[in-house]
Design brief:
Aspartate Aminotransferase, domain 2, alpha/beta, homodimer, three-stranded antiparallel beta sheet, 2 domains, 16% strand, 360 residues, seven-stranded mixed beta sheet, Aspartate Aminotransferase, domain 1
Amino acid sequence: MSRAYNFCAGPAALPAEVLLQAQQELVDWRGKGLSVMEMSHRSDEFVSIATTAEKDFRDLLSVSDDYEVLFLQGGASAQFSMVPLNLLRGKKSSAYVNTGIWSQKAIAEAKKYCDVAVVSSAESTKFSEVPTQETWSSVSGAAYVHYTPNETIGGLEFDWVPEVDGVPLVADMSSCILSRPLDISQYGLIYAGAQKNIGPAGLTIVVVKKDLLGGALPLTPAMMDYKIAADNASMYNTPPTYAWYLSGLVFQWLKRLGGLDVIGEINRRKAEKLYNAIDNSEFYANPIKVGSRSRMNVPFTLRDDALNGVFLAEAERAGLLNLQGHRSVGGMRASIYNAMPEEGVDKLLEFMSDFERKHG
Amino acid sequence: MSRAYNFCAGPAALPAEVLLQAQQELVDWRGKGLSVMEMSHRSDEFVSIATTAEKDFRDLLSVSDDYEVLFLQGGASAQFSMVPLNLLRGKKSSAYVNTGIWSQKAIAEAKKYCDVAVVSSAESTKFSEVPTQETWSSVSGAAYVHYTPNETIGGLEFDWVPEVDGVPLVADMSSCILSRPLDISQYGLIYAGAQKNIGPAGLTIVVVKKDLLGGALPLTPAMMDYKIAADNASMYNTPPTYAWYLSGLVFQWLKRLGGLDVIGEINRRKAEKLYNAIDNSEFYANPIKVGSRSRMNVPFTLRDDALNGVFLAEAERAGLLNLQGHRSVGGMRASIYNAMPEEGVDKLLEFMSDFERKHG
């Protein structure tokens, strides 16, 4: 088979030209006689790869020197512990917003370390709508406010940034980072597992305001202390070097493309096409209210669930992979991250339309 | 440059045929239209890759069903915290053996969670000799006994397994795992960062006896709880899929080679050649006592430290990379893990001999 369109929620598709470059360089990186995988993380070559990747990431998001950019391991799930372990700084409580499954996982883990006030929840709308800020409880006194700007499973996305009265704002951006411009100065900390919009699984990027560092709980494992990571330029121990390198290639690809304004516009267009097609059909449906819909993860159902298996099998034969919804919600889900080209969405729309004609 | 001989201590050289296979499969894995990096960790394809890798690893080390094999993140440094967090099980103290820098890092981290008794130390011999078991203090009452069978930096290796009176024995095997046969039943837990004898950095393998699981301290982060990892087949969250896949290719390579008896014999021969050359020279020296010498990491000094720079530069020109010793000890170090072919050691010996003739 030639290269398929892969709608997986994560690990997700990577840009084809990044994979081709990685393939070309895999055995012998630029005539050095070894693979990037085989380089000492302290070698000039790898340090140059690592610092270039950080610089490109900072350029893309306009991250100022007030922030550390950390290249860590453990995924968002490790951050669910690291955020309270590091950011409580003597306080006893934190504030969380519940917009779906990933928010709930973050909340459950934070409860090990502090009182958690759920200041807003989308539960009453069955997670079909981001609760407007006016409905939130007060966040004052909290060590930080945590929210999930994009819920990968539910397909719910904030199109606004919460106002939190000077309390540090923390965001799990695993499935929306680099998908459009953001103003980092509104955040105390953002984090993202790499395997959606950054690179391969096994790398996690954290951007944290420097003045929040240094107050980790005494029992914090060294590998979970942001300050130790920052003081060691993310090389307290051997980092996931190959994932770091590949992420750097992705950042360069994004810069060549024109940066976050350009990819943001492409992403807006891709999502709009797909939601329009769903809304204009009697056969497909999306449960999320307009204004709260994810640009990255588009869940949808068929009129008849009994057709799900046929839909997935025919899609796969058409080179459209991994459209099944998350096992906890069922139905379908098209994840259309940065690396999904617009042609991939067009192909999907064509397929959906054909399928509806045949089975509708 | 064609492929060089890379003596890096880690991330270390990988077998050339593994890299070539990875290169060939990188963009399109076996006609599926996507890279392994882009596969859902829950897809049939990746689950098959993952379970095959685990099975091959178990075969190589003859790991029985009494043990879990976990594929984790965070390197040995994360294990320095995870071992006490998980294995104290109500006890207040643990026993550690200090044979060098990595032992000391493990000890420092364990002190956050329990009383640490250093039951044996090589400090009095300046870490030039593994202390014989008769000189150890009693380990009775300890939750576990931790030691470092091979010290990557100092080049000190146990050629025997401690007897610990039924206390669970824990070993940091980062730089010696898979280098020769071992009897897993002598251990409660072994762990190893992948980037020496397993695969690329970013993966850590833990083998732990099932009856030791389930007693983690209440504040243990979910990502650091072995039981959670075991209950979820190392997929509580997205694992480092590409590193897992590559490790699987390394295990298959080792099996094709004939397994640990065969590689153990090759490693014995490689190390013997190198130590013999050093011992038979007035120009080179190794500080470690015979019987305590590492088969994996061979540190050596030149008669005149002022020649170090010339040695490294000429070696690099000869295609012999990364021979500098660790920054904390200086001198040279040749790491000769499984993937270093015997020809690489022969080339190094030839170079050392030429260098001695020219500069000795």
